[in-house]
Amino acid sequence: MKRRQFIQEASLLLSVPTLLTSCQKEAMFSDKSVIIIGAGISGLTAAKTLNERGFQVTLLEAQEKVGGRLRSNRSLGIAFDEGASWIHGVKKNPISDLAQKAGMSTVETVDESRKSYDIGGVLRSTTVYDDTEDKFYEILDTLMKKGNAAQSFETVFKQLYPTYANDRLWKFFLSTYITFDTGDLNKLSSLLYNEGEEFGGVEKIATNGYDTITKHLARGLNIQLNHRVSKVDHSGTKVQVSHNGTISTADYVIVTVPLGVLKKNSIQFIPALPATKQTAIQQVGMNCVNKFLLTWDRAFWDDVQFISYTPETPDKFNYFVNVKKIHPTVNALMTFAYAEYGRSTESMSDSQVTNEIMAHIKDIYGNNIPNPLNLLRTKWDSNENSFGAYSYTAVGTEMRHFDDLAEEVNDRLFFAGEHTEIDYFSTAHGAYLSGIREAEKIIALQ
């Protein structure tokens, strides 16, 4: 599927910062200490950059392993990426080089390898699908001119295109092309839904686990796992960080926890964060995307990369990735639930979720197909380490809020993560770039 529209390659960074090599260590700062809260890709990248310049760096990670939202579940013999799966645009994307260095294997996913089914298992013609997609992008390119700061994307779209809003194929495009990439349509800004830059080139999906990147970055770093931070006191000359009943101090602290964690006030800041940052935390949205992997002993579905289904209910198991095209010996499909429906799945049992998914698959392929042998799933919205999947431009969001989220406090307290990258928010490469950015801020202070 297409991701957020490629905006303008000429506007991208002419060069992408990379981690320092040994020949770039002009100055070492072994007398300076840094605590990084969170060992996701942004925290690990910042730590590696600072470590290579001699800083004393400690990472505090609340979970049992590094990676944050880059988690790979291998319990069924293949890597099920619970968070990031794709490199979105390989051209000039820093994740491309990093993935190669880390030994992450990838394959290109081909958008054109697809079939679309309507209710009743009716195969939709390619012409109808393609024509609707073209019209959809035509509207997407212009709708912002008719929106306003107080209205959601959904409100404006329904006012302008009431017939499309009730059409099942259009609901599919709105769900998998907009909600998936951004957030809840009834909360998404009608002015800013298309903000954010993109890298060009094809899209590739990880085959041996996206967490190979974070494992690579973590090598040689001082990481304390299962250490949950409860308080950050930055009132003195040293920053004091409370975690697991102890207090650690450092010259600088980088906070890399997800936006959802900041929204929940899971960490107490003393003194309180500046009003501009608190406003930004509340105004920028946090999406929910949950993923589901089902396996069978045999494949009964179409030999294409993507299978779409257009139910009446939006955001509900309407898009299937044929994992067999990626792992030929594995009979598996991966599907998704977004926004409010995605959140609702988190209170469902495994059997309830499986039944809901199978109702769609059986409508396509008939009632005689077998039930799956296994189910793996995510619950990102209720996960205390994330409280959501990634940030988006909600009604009330202003683009400056992303810069406010990135703003340091008194040159001691710094912030990284995908939600702090104004050009590449909601992406793994945005998180990576934010880690370099904050490390370079600290280096520049020496």
How would you describe this protein?
This protein folds into two domains: 32-62 and 73-107 and 207-285 and 395-444, FAD/NAD(P)-binding domain; 110-203 and 287-377, Polyamine Oxidase, Chain A, domain 2 (Alpha-Beta Complex). The model is unreliable at 1-25 (pLDDT under 50). The strands form six sheets. Strands 8-7-18-19-20-17-21 form a seven-stranded mixed β-sheet, with helices on both faces. The protein is α/β, with parallel strands linked by helices and 446 residues long. The protein is globular and about 65 Å long. The protein starts with 32 loop residues before the first strand and ends with a helix. It is built from 13 helices and 23 strands. Strand 7 (114-118) and strand 8 form a beta hairpin. Helix content is 29%, strand content 21%.
**Which shape, going by the Cα principal axes?**
globular
Which secondary-structure class do the elements indicate? alpha/beta
Radius of gyration: 22 Å
**How many E-type strands?**
23
By CATH, the superfamily of the largest domain comes out as FAD/NAD(P)-binding domain
Instruction: Count up the helices.
Output: 13
The largest β sheet comes out as:
7 strands, mixed
What number of domains?
A: 2
CATH architecture of the largest domain: 3-Layer(bba) Sandwich
Mean pLDDT figure? 94
Strand content: 15-25%
The top level CATH class name of the largest domain: Alpha Beta
Distance from first to last alpha carbon = 45 Å
Helical percent range? 25-40%
